[in-house]
Structure formats: structure tokens, C-alpha cells
Amino acid sequence: MIQFDNVSKRYPGGYEALIGINLRIERGELVVLRGHSGAGKSTLLKLLPVLERPTSGRVLINAQDVSRLPAGAIPYLRRSLGLVTQDSRLLYDRNVLDNVMLPLILADMPARDAKARVRAALERVGLAQHERSMPISLSGGEQQRVAIARAIVNRPTMLIADEPTANLDAAYAQDIAALFRDYNEAGVTMIIATHDERLFADRAPRRIELSKGRLVSA
Amino acid sequence: MTRWFALHGIALSRAVKRLTHTPLGTLLSVLVVAIALVLPALGYVLADSVARLAQGLSGQPEISLFMEVGADKAKVAAVERALRSDKGVTGLRYVPRDEALKQLASGSGLGDVTRALGENPLPDAFIITPHSDAPAEFTRLAESFRKLPGVAHVQLDTEWVQRLAALVSLVHSAVGALAGLLGAALVIVTFNTIRLQILTQRHEIGVSLLLGATQQWVRRPFLWFGALQGALGGLAAWGLLIGILALMQGPATRLAESYGIPLELGGPDLLGVAALIGFASLLGWLGAALSVRRHLHAAGERGDS
Questions:
Q1: Which of A16, B73, B226, B254 is deepest in the core (most CB within 10 A)?
Q2: Domain boundary, last residue among B126, B157, B188
Q3: How large is the ipTM?
């Protein structure tokens, strides 16, 4: 369960990205976050893995106030979440297998178990045959699927995606959306910021809309 | 503890990969470190060789006491009694003036000159071994011997050795200051190398932090990198030192032999080499730690750099 209690975020320079957000997301929900550019979608998502901290208010994940989490505890929180960003943020000097294995190495998993997990994740995103490929040799859609495999390899209970299909053409975007729907059906809480909510229309997701940092509809 | 070793093993292997990834850059950095180290190390070795030489030459410190030329036997006997009764004297050897002349003629190659002299110009002398080799005690004895009747001159045979020791001590201090300065240079070189590495690996660092890497996970390979680069620099400095000493040994030996002094320019022993490498490694680690602290702070907990 995720809860935003009267959360505001002001960046240095005075820009108010979020103003008084009150929001509750239940376990297993599929949430689509809508809003124009600069509405505060990315900032809202960044508060969950503590990439940013709120200026005021509280952000709770499973009743734990992550906005006041000490710096040393943040890596462990991030390992429990799956994060997908607009650009795939892969390491281009490592092959697909090594990229997807990175979260497991960080979590100190033995190499043999980690490889099995990675292969299962790659199988899930349809890239099993590409484990030795370098990311640069893959299409944009395939790279984003590698990023999704990396996000799910730790078997998170929550997946946060910020415009995961923004750089993809329609066919690839549909593939990625289908993957997300599958995970949500498996019980993973999904929070997806996107301009194209039609991608998830068939699952009737909960729509949350932001405008100029304020919650318009939830 | 096993996990601790495993994490450091991973960090070490990542550091080795980074070192071997850019061999030319690594070689240049190692050479800079080596040159920064070899200068004070060479100064230290040279000063140490001279110090050992001075120590070997001085042997048991002695005082030479010369009687007035033509002092009669009674005066000589009185001085001898006074010396033997002095508790500060542990050894005494009387050198009659005739024996001194013979020694001069045979030992210095001045036989013809001494034969040409009408009469023996040398005085009777005593070679005194003091009980203590403390400089203050030497001075006290010399002062008291000068007051004895018939004594013309008292000479401290270790004076020049003491001056040399003072000079060596001065050189040691200068070498220490130089080592401090060049050590700081080594820290700065490593600081900058790591800064550049952090800049080139910003993306990897950012992704790792985003996926749950701890600050320690990110820092460790850089710290190992600094320590390894320092250690390699120390090793290279030792090699350079051996080479330079080998080049200097011949000319230095010939120069010393022309003064009748045996000189051996010894390189550092095993402990010295270990200290050199360990010191360089420590400074490398320090430079890396400062750089990582300074430049990773910006990435901090954000992990989105």
C-alpha cells in the first residue's frame, strides 16, 4: 500500500512541482498517471524510490515513511522496487545478461541462482535468445524490454514506470504495455506515468491526473 | 566476514578491470607516481648510505692528546698518571714521538721527507678511549686534558664524523620534507585520476545507485583502484631506484676510493621495499577516498546522475 499525505515538493529556485498531494494506492492496483509535461508526474514517481524527498508531507510504502528514510537504508528500498525510466538506462559496455543481472549482484545473490533468474526474466520479455547481445545491437523496443527484465528480475511487488513507451513506435509500445498488464495480473502493483493511456484501456486502470503539481482526479 | 571478503573481492576485480581497460593511461599514472616516490626514496637511500659509512668509519671514538714538542719525560709521565687516574678514561695508548715519526714515514709514503728532516718535529702523544661516547662527556674530557701541564693540543678524532652525522641528519630532514611534498602530489594525482574516472563512469554509477547499489558498493572499486595504482607506482619506484643506484654505484665508488673510503650504495631491504609500496598504496587510497567523497557526494542518494 502506498500513501501520499499532504505531499509538496519545491525545487531549489522555488519551482513547485507538487502541491498538497493526498493519495492512496492499494496493493495490486494498476495506476496510470496522466498530466501534461511539467504536471508533476515524474516528481511524484521519484518520491517512491527516494530519488527526491518531499519538501513537506509524508510518503508511506507499506506504512513505512520513506520520505524520512536514512540514506543508508535507501538502497535496500530501491532493491524492493522495479524502476523503468523513459530511456532504458542500460550499460552499453555490458551484454544483456550482465545488464539484467546487475540488481541481483547488488543484492548479493550467488551467480548461479542469479543467472537462472535472469534467464527467466529474459524469457518473460521475449529476449531469451539475446542474452549475449550488446544493447547497442538491439532495437529501442528490445532495449526497453531489457530494462523491464532488469526491473522485474528482483521480483518486486511494485513496478514504477515513467513514460516507458515514450520513445517507442506503436507496435513496440503495445508489446511493453502487454508485458505490464501481465505483471499486474500476477499481483504486482503498477504505477505508470504515460501520455498514452489507451495502451492500458483494456485493463480499465485507475486514472490519476495531475495538473500544475495538483491532483485533479484520483 | 566471508561476505565482507567477497564484496572486496568483487571491488578488487572491478578495479583491476578498470586499470587494464586503459593500459596507456594506467602506465602514465603509475610512472608519475613512481617518479614522485623515487626522488625522496633516492635521497633517503643516499643519506642512509653516507650515515652507515660515517658510523663504520668512526668506530670507537677517541681523543688524541699531543704533548709540547720537547716535553721532558717527567711531564709525559705526569700526564700519563693523570690520564690513568681519570675515571672517564677506559683505554690509553702512549705513542712516543719516535714511533710516530716511523708511522708517518711508513704509512704516508713520506719516508724521504722525514729522512730529510734534521730532527723529529713530532710530539709525544696519547690516544685516549673515553668511557662514554656522549659528545658532552667528550668535550668535558678534552677541556680537562687541555689544562694538564705540558699538553699542547687535544683533538677529538670524531669531530668530522659528528659534523657528517649532523649533515646527514639535515639531509634526512630535507628528504622528509620532500617526501611530504611529493606524497601530497601523489594524493593529488590519484584524486584527479579518480575524478576523471567518476566523470566517465557517471552513467554506470547513476544506474547502479538507481538499482539499489550502496555508496560503499560504488566507492570500493575506486578505493582499490587508488591503492593498486599507488602500489604499482611504489613497485615501479623501487625498480627505478635500483636502476639509478646501479648507474651511480661505479662513479660513487671511484670517488669514495680516491679518499680511501669504502662506499656501498645499498638499495632498500625487503622491509624498505614493503614500506615504500605500502606507503604509496596508502597515499593512493587516501587520494581516491578524498576524490570519491568529493565527487560521489553530488550523486549521493539520488542515483539519477
A1: B226
A2: B157
A3: 0.89
